[in-house]
Amino acid sequence: MHARIIFGNNFQGCLDYVFGKPGARMVGKHQLAGQTPIQWASQFDLIASQSQRIQKPVMHVDLSPHPDDRMIDKQGIAFTRKYFQGLGMQCCQWVLAEHTDAITPDGKPRPHFHAIANRIPLNQTKAVNSSWLGLRSQQVLRELRIEFGLRPVRESEAIERKPVSVGQERRYRRERQECDRFGLPELPVKVQLQNAIDEATREPIALPELIQRLQQQAIAVRVRLTREGRATGISYCCENVAFSGTQLGRAYTLPGLQKHRGVDCEIPSDFTALQPSMHRSEMSNPTPSPPSPEELLQAQQEQWVREIAPILQRLLDYYEKDELENDRYEIHRLDEGRQISVDRKKALSSPILGVKWEGEHLKIWASRLQVRDVEHFQTIGRELAQIEENEVQSLETSAEIEGESIPRDRDSEREGYGTSQGKQKQRGQLQRSQRQLQI
User: Fold this and answer.
1) In the chain, pLDDT over 70 holds for what percent of residues?
2) What does the pLDDT look like over 153-165, one tens digit per residue?
3) How far apart are CA 299 and CA 438, in angstroms?
């Protein structure tokens, strides 16, 4: 069990926040009557008004158990009562609520509790002493963990790995509720970055190798260096969203990578040469500023799109269709063939690829490709090229038998498909191609 304590001066605002969350529910209360936050707030304020000196009577405690621990209501109430007793607040009012909006790194719900307490006891006008409250809270939690048989939670876990924002949590919950219709949603970008770094640092690794592994997953990494080659910070960018190491959590900063993830953060002498896009000189250096992580990722996305778009055009032409789909992707051709979009099936997000041909110019209006998407369509391109080559060889063999010559230019080859014999061969080859091509 991990506890985070926050002091405030507005009971009504704190109660509105805690019970205004979707799915929030009241688990239990102590020395309070009524069933609504408004009724509880008035009773909190009445007792707090007995003390004229205290400025922050609100004590908000976020109690987060281990993801594998599940506490029923009776256990939660008993745990909270003993927790406040251990802090010397057995005569204080409190109310306990449960939230289900937090998620684990693998996307599973992580229920946790919020306790709102009044620091002014019912039997006196002096607030409970808050000196060394954090250390006292940790000691009480260790004792209660043994008594209730709970799994240990590192006290610094929430700092090492920061949770996603409220907006990202709400979006993920909304998409997860619709998973029966659209499939499981993608994890928030912040969680994807944290998971990717955790996976890449399961074994001891050097910083340059870590950067290369993350770049292979379409994650841009930028290490800020002084002119003397001393590292001063690190940031990450995925799907055009950038986070500093501090925003992801203490374990994802340069000192944190070395301390908590076992990364060798020593900067080699050739690091600038190996990673020129990651180096930022001092402002006095007259050389141009290096591209930002967003610019690097945008350049990588543009390169991928320009490689994949012609493959998609050939694929749609080959099947003579404007729409293709499988269990992973949906491909659409619109605007009389001048526009192509690719959606990841069962996802509520925008297209992962969108292009439009304006004459000979290719305009990119959507690009959220990942390495697995690029590899998939590259494989399709190779298979399609092989099938097209087999078709040409088959036509050449047939022409030699009949004593005919087949023109080598592509337009003439397509015109040959206009004959009845050519159409019959094409239908047979298409049937074989559909079995070979898994789009």
Assistant:
1) 74
2) 654 444 566 666 6
3) 29
Shared domain for 138 and 226, answered yes or no, is no
- 263 CB burial (10 A radius; 0-12, 13-18, 19+): buried
- Does this model's pTM top 0.70? My answer is no
Mean predicted lDDT score pLDDT of the chain: 78
Which one-letter DSSP state was computed for residue 199? Answer: H
What is the pLDDT at residue 251? 85
Closest C-alpha among 363, 338, 336, 369 to residue 351: 369
Taking residue 276's Cβ as centre, other Cβ atoms within 10 Å add up to 10
Residues 12 and 122 reside in one and the same domain: yes
Contacts of 123 (CB under 8 A, 6+ apart): 91
Q: Are residues 318 and 392 in the same domain?
A: yes
Compute the distance between CA of residue 244 and CA of residue 223 in angstroms, rounded to an integer: 10
303 lies in the same domain as 224: no
Domain with 15 in it: what CATH number?
A: 3.30.930
User: In the beta sheet, which residues pair with residue 303?
Assistant: none
CA distance 210 to 258: 12
Specify the amino acid at residue 413: E
Interacting residues of 337 by C-beta distance below 8 A, sequence separation 6+: 322
pLDDT reading at 391 higher than 80: no
Q: Which domain holds residue 380?
A: 297-436
What pLDDT does residue 11 have? 94
Q: Show the 3-state SS of 132-160.
A: CHHHHHHHHHHHHHHHHCCCCCCCCHHHH
Q: Are strands 94-99 and 25-30 parallel, antiparallel or unpaired?
A: antiparallel
- Indicate whether 410 and 361 sit together in one domain: yes
What is the domain count for the chain? 3
The mean pLDDT value for 28-42 works out to 93
State the Cα–Cα distance between residues 385 and 341, nearest whole angstrom: 21
Q: 3-state SS of 260-312?
A: HCCEECCCCCCHHHHCHHHCCCCCCCCCCCCCCHHHHHHHHHHHHHHHHHHHH
* Count of CB atoms situated within 10 Å of the CB of 117: 24
Of 155, 170, 204, the residue that ends a domain is 155
Cα–Cα distance between 223 and 272 in angstroms, integer? 10
Distance from C-alpha of 142 to C-alpha of 83, rounded to nearest angstrom: 10
Name residues whose C-beta falls within 8 Å of residue 150's C-beta, 6 or more positions apart in sequence.
Answer: 1, 65, 66, 69, 144
Per-residue model confidence (pLDDT) at position 280: 37
